[in-house]
Design goal:
By secondary structure, this protein is an alpha+beta fold. The chain folds into two domains: about 5-20 and about 35-175, HIT-like (HIT family, subunit A, 2-Layer Sandwich), CATH 3.30.428.10; about 175-325, HIT family, subunit A, CATH 3.30.428.10. Helix content is about 25%, strand content about 25%. It is built from six helices and 14 strands. The strands form two sheets. A ten-stranded antiparallel beta sheet has the order 3-4-7-9-8-13-14-12-11-10, with helices on both faces. Helix 1 (about 120-135) crosses helix 4 (about 245-265). It is globular. The chain starts with 5 loop residues before the first strand and ends with a helix.
Length: about 325
């Protein structure tokens, strides 16, 4: 079983953890040290992806000159590995599943151009790639959930500074999404309405926490923000399945996501941040009660004992003040 990642299930909470044995080999790898972020274009593996190994691109977009502008390919150090078998077993009282799945990187060409610095059409290309690779993997055997995320900056976990997103297709459902799905389903059963639609209507009416809005999308600092300057980008129309988004709405999403990132980048002087997509599982079940969205979390603080021990996050600024500040940042 060497170098095969495992999914281990907690018997108390029911949540899963990934034990990715191929990503850290020795205890010394975990010693506290400054993260080595590759800054030099000459040494950057994403400036010439796949050049020194046998990985084949899963997606390539080209510009008018015929040069690649975006490329998706398998992660060189995957948390999940493709396999034709999904081994389930018990280890004492615990359930263990092989880490079967797909782990890809989605790379844009310009080494120094963050998403906040891109034009809308360049962000649209990234959204197109998210959808295309999602559709390409959602029906693969054993795949029940696809996570799409982007780490920007050292503090956000980016080991390579070259802008790139990641896509992980896996056999289990993300615990955070699972809680969100359950909450959405409970609200739907009690009120026969989408909880996110209700929240969006309320936010639009008050306008206190809205930082950007176009015809189809809204970006806001949530009333219950988990972190300072947290922003979420929602479709204003009810939509459960990200992969079904049409071209017009993708353009509007690119505009809204870009605007939110520009405001965070300008207002907070280029902070590290993570953003990720929360959408429905691809396990064939009905999740029409859910409302997909993107969440953006700037790295403005570090979790300490209280947050780690309770799971309750402390935001050091009211979302109303955060939104007021971000509104002032020009796009």
């Amino acid at each position: 079983m060497a170098n095969v990642s495992e999914l281990r299930q907690d018997i108390v909470t029911g949540t899963w953890a990934v034990i990715a044995t191929g990503r850290a080999k020795r205890p010394d790898d975990f010693k506290t040290k400054k993260r080595a972020v590759i800054e030099n274009e000459k040494d950057c593996p994403f400036c010439h992806p796949g050049k020194d190994d046998k990985r084949k691109p899963t997606l390539v977009y080209k510009d008018l000159k015929g040069e690649w502008s975006l490329m998706a390919m398998p992660n060189k150090y995957p948390a999940f590995d493709s396999s034709t078998r999904l081994n389930r077993r018990e280890n004492g009282p615990f359930s263990v599943v092989d880490g079967v799945g797909f782990h890809e990187v989605i790379i844009t060409r310009n080494h120094n151009l963050s998403i906040a610095q891109m034009k809308t059409n360049q962000v649209l290309e990234i959204i197109n790639a998210y959808q295309e690779r999602y559709l390409g993997l959602m029906n693969r055997r054993f795949i029940n959930y696809i996570s799409i995320f982007h780490n920007h900056g050292r503090e956000a976990g980016a080991s390579v500074s070259h802008p790139h997103s990641q896509l992980v297709a896996m056999p289990v459902i993300d615990p955070d999404v699972w809680r969100s799905l359950n909450g959405s389903a409970d609200y739907w059963q009690k009120n026969k309405r989408c909880v996110h639609c209700v929240m969006i209507e309320w936010e639009k009416e008050s306008a206190e926490r809205v930082i950007f809005e176009n015809e189809e999308f809204i970006a806001l600092c949530p009333f219950v923000s988990r972190a300072a300057f947290e922003v979420r980008v929602y479709p204003k129309f009810h939509a459960s399945y990200f992969e079904r988004i049409n071209q017009i709405n993708k353009t509007k999403l690119a505009e809204a996501l870009r605007a939110a990132l520009i405001k965070i980048d300008k207002g907070l002087s280029g902070p590290a941040y993570n953003f990720f997509l929360h959408t429905t599982p691809c396990d064939g079940k009905d999740y029409s009660h859910y409302h997909w969205h993107f969440e953006i979390l700037p790295k403005t603080s570090i979790w300490a004992g209280f947050e780690l021990g309770t799971g309750i996050e402390i935001s050091t600024i009211e979302p109303e003040k955060a939104a007021e500040f971000l509104k002032q940042q020009k796009v």
